[in-house]
Specification:
six-stranded parallel beta sheet, six-stranded mixed beta sheet, 14 helices, about 45% helix
Length: about 350
């Protein structure tokens, strides 16, 4: 057998089982007794069987592929979480087809159709453009991450608690004015908790505060062009106050910090900065940035774990559908660095 591909017929002959029984072992092992499963497993080892994955896909339609849709690879959070999801191959054995949608609804809908044509077994969605109700209508296991998730299983950070931690840290830094810079997020998006947590701490301690909600762009050039005038306006409006700046992600926090360093050569004493994500850019910045760590590795692993659970259920002879979507929430970890005391 060492010099030829081992076929189902070879395994059947070795075990005295029929080829149908061997096929059931690969495609529906639950239909066999544990004893017979073990006999076949031992035979595969003895015959040095190497699986023909293309043949198996043609036989049972199971591709072992998972689709991923992300908004972009510019924000450090998305590039890191994608890297963490891809690394789960060693644990779960699924391969990935990845598309970056760039927040264009019709483009992303085309990507979804493309992924489905490849017979993917499940999907992880980080983009925001298509509603969870539409995603659920595709009738395929789906897990969403940090986006609206009423109709899909999801894994999110506790964004509210993270904002409470970030704002409380700035409060302990004796800031005079507290500013949160974010996008104008809908309340059903998990990241809205960053806005609500900021507001609640400011109201609880009667802090002078301000929200700056706008679209910051999806490229470095756009970020610079939109943050620069905001920074200038903040300096003009609060010239003799210590300013506590809580930004919605580490990418924006790093750009805000770089603009200050470019102007002053260092972080001025009247600025304190906290980001959100815990992505590498916060630690690698010229002055390491305090941030709210999202435990991105755990989010990615949990998302894949939840997806695999759904995909495995679908492979059973009598799958039991979920009564309701499962939503998992991961605790954030405040990371204090040099941009706060």
């Amino acid at each position: 057998m060492a010099n030829k591909n081992v076929t189902f017929a070879d395994i059947a002959k070795y075990t005295n089982f029929s080829k149908t029984t061997i096929s059931r072992y690969f495609n529906n092992p639950d239909s066999l007794t544990l004893e017979n499963q073990q006999i076949i497993a031992d035979a595969l080892v003895a015959l040095n069987y190497k699986e023909n994955k293309v043949a198996r896909i043609l036989a049972n339609g199971k591709t072992e592929f998972v689709g991923i849709i992300i908004p972009n690879l510019y924000l450090h959070y998305y590039s890191q979480i994608l890297n963490e999801i891809l690394s789960t191959y060693e644990t779960f054995g699924y391969k990935f087809l990845v598309f970056a949608g760039n927040d264009k609804e019709e483009v992303e809908r085309r990507y979804f159709k493309e992924l489905l044509s490849y017979k993917i077994e499940g999907m992880i969605v980080l983009s925001h453009t298509i509603s969870s109700k539409e995603l659920a209508s595709y009738n395929i296991p789906i897990v969403t991450v940090e986006r609206e998730d009423q109709y899909t299983c999801s894994v999110n950070s506790d964004n509210y608690m993270g904002a409470v931690q970030a704002t409380s840290l700035l409060y302990k830094n004796d800031c005079d004015i507290f500013i949160h810079m974010n996008a104008d997020i809908a309340p059903d998006v998990p990241a809205y908790g960053r806005i609500q947590g900021f507001l609640d701490i400011c109201k609880e301690h009667k802090l002078d505060h301000r929200l700056i909600l706008k679209e910051w762009g999806s490229t470095y050039k756009e970020n610079i062009e939109r943050i620069q005038p905001v920074l200038e306006e903040i300096e003009q409006t609060y010239p003799r106050k210590r300013k506590g700046i809580f930004l919605s992600n580490d990418t924006l926090a790093n750009i805000f910090l770089n603009l200050l360093i470019k102007k002053y050569g260092t972080l001025p004493d009247d600025f304190r900065i906290v980001g959100f994500d815990g992505s590498p850019v916060s630690a690698e910045a010229i002055i390491p940035i305090s941030t709210v760590g999202q435990q991105i590795d755990k989010i990615a692993f949990t998302a894949m774990e939840l997806l695999v659970m759904q995909m495995n259920e679908r492979k059973k002879r009598k799958p039991i559908p979920l009564e309701a979507p499962i939503h998992k929430v991961m605790a954030p970890i405040l990371i204090r660095r040099e941009t706060t005391d």
